């Protein structure tokens, strides 16, 4: 092993160089920066300008020296009190170290103590007044202390729902009180119509206490109507003048005429009718006449006067039967020929109808009673002429000849069986008969009427049973089976 010799430097005076007290300088002039390793302790000394350093004295609020907090890229935002924060502002994130556990005092408002109506609550007050908190079912009153909240003018608050505005002091608003004799008045305003624009209505002063609204009357064509009435104005009882103006006028179908009256002020009416005798029934507006007077006793008129006819109180016309030709007035009861009113039968008089005094099926006829022969005895059917009046026809043994009604047409149909109601035959007034055959292995329940069921039916047809509709029934016929199987074979006769 060999060792290299070490060189120790000495200056001309024999003092060792490259020591801590006598270091070796590469640049004797001292203008070249030298590398330094290790820890270097700096001291401001006395020549350093400390007035601009970030000292405690210079870091007072809004001092000349400030510090920005950033992560090398983003600098946290600090805004004046009058400027609202926005979403784009960088925010300083602060987290509590997991190595530290915050210690809260006993009874602090923790999550455990802040359950609904828990044992820890907070009150908001200003040192004197505490804000009132009431249950949902209790209404607030004017005496409740209220928490005053102000919204910053730098933030816009959206409002939804119904907003009720209060005008506060009414000032010069047109209220009910001022619109009735007050200083504020309502102005009538006309709407726009066609080429005419909207505008305020005008008024004209009529007197010290009247301001009249100007009104213009126009025809349907738009012409202005500015004159009314005309003619002479008359008072009651004034002598007749020109028939114009306010007189009563009537229309005769061609011209307009003034009405006529009498001195008592009654209107003269001509009740002449346009009907002819025994021509047509009166109309609803026709004037009728009352040609007679109702009298319990015969009236006594004056010779030559125009009078009404006289009727009894039951409406029968009063006639004079006091004079009879060839006889005196008849009385009730049988009379001799001399005291009877003569009656003659004309030589060309037709048959005289006589009426009997018997009642039907009451007694046997008397020897002098007139009977009737209502029928003819015929061995064969007679042949009458259409429209002639004829007698009934009986057989030679006295039986009334009748003809049984026949049905020339039979219409068949098949109705499939069903466990629910079905219609076998619809109502038909032309039906003279009908038959039903149950071509099924199940019972068929037939009902004369709508909606048959197993408990509502007219008759039950067992399998292969035959049924004829009785009594000339022509209404609807429904049916139902115990279960669907086979058909109903229906024949309708008309």
Task: Provide a descriptive summary of the structure in words.
There is one protein chain. This protein is mainly β and 494 residues long. The chain has a domain at 410-493: Jelly Rolls. It has one helix at residues 176-179; strands spanning 189-190, 199-200, 203-207, 210-213, 217-218, 224-225, 249-251, 256-258, 292-294, 309-311, 375-377, 392-394, 410-416, 422-425, 433-439, 444-448, 459-461, 466-468, 477-481, 487-493. The strands form eight sheets. A four-stranded antiparallel sheet has the order 13-20-15-18, with no helix packed on it. β5 and β6 (224-225) form a beta hairpin. The longest helix is centred in the middle third of the chain and has 4 residues, at 176-179. The mean pLDDT is 78.
Largest sheet: 4 strands, antiparallel
CATH architecture tag of the domain at 410-493: Sandwich
Mean pLDDT: 78
What's the number of extended β-strand segments? 20
Which term fits the overall shape? elongated
């Amino acid at each position: 092993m060999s060792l290299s010799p070490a060189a120790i430097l000495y200056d001309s005076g024999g003092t060792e160089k490259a020591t801590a007290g006598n270091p070796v300088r590469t640049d004797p002039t001292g203008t070249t920066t030298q590398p330094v390793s290790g820890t270097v302790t700096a001291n401001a000394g006395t020549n350093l300008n400390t007035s601009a350093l970030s000292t405690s004295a210079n870091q007072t609020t809004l001092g000349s020296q400030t510090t920005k907090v950033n992560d090398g890229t983003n600098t946290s935002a600090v805004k004046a009190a009058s400027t609202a924060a926005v979403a784009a502002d960088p925010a300083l994130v602060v987290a509590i170290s997991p190595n530290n556990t915050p210690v809260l005092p006993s009874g602090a408002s923790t999550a455990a103590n802040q359950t609904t109506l828990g044992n820890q609550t907070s009150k908001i007050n200003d040192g004197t007044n505490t804000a009132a908190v009431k249950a949902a079912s209790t209404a607030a009153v004017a005496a409740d202390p209220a928490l005053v909240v102000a919204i910053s003018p730098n933030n816009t608050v959206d409002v939804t729902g119904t907003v009720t505005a209060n005008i506060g002091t009414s000032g010069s608003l047109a209220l009910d009180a001022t619109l009735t004799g007050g200083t504020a008045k309502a102005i009538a305003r006309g709407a726009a119509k066609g080429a005419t624009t909207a505008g305020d209505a005008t008024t004209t002063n009529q007197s010290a206490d009247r301001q009249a609204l100007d009104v213009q009357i126009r025809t349907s064509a738009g012409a202005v109507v500015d004159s009314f009435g005309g003619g002479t104005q008359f008072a009651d009882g004034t002598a007749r003048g020109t028939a114009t103006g306010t007189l009563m006028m009537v229309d005769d179908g061609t011209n307009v005429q003034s009405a006529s009256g009498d001195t008592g002020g009654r209107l003269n009416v001509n009740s002449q009718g346009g009907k002819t005798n025994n021509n047509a029934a009166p109309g609803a507006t026709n004037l009728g006449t009352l040609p007679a007077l109702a009298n319990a006793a015969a009236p006594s008129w004056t010779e030559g006067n125009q009078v009404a006819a006289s009727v009894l109180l039951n409406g029968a016309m009063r006639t004079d039967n006091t004079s009879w030709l060839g006889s005196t007035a008849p009385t009730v009861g049988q009379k001799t020929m001399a005291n009877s009113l003569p009656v003659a039968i004309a030589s060309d008089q037709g048959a005289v109808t006589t009426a009997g005094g018997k009642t039907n099926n009451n007694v046997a006829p008397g020897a002098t009673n007139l009977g009737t022969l209502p029928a003819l005895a015929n061995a064969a059917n007679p042949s009458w002429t259409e429209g002639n009046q004829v007698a009934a026809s009986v057989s030679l043994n006295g039986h009334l000849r009748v003809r049984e009604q026949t049905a020339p047409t039979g219409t068949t149909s098949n109705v499939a069986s069903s466990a629910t109601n079905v219609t076998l035959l619809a109502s038909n007034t032309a039906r003279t008969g009908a038959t039903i055959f149950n071509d099924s292995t199940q019972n068929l329940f037939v009902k004369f009427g709508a909606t048959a069921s197993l408990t509502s039916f007219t008759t039950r047809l067992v399998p292969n049973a035959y049924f004829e509709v009785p009594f000339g029934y022509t209404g609807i016929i429904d049916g139902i089976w115990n279960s669907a199987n086979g058909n109903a074979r229906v024949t309708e006769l008309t």
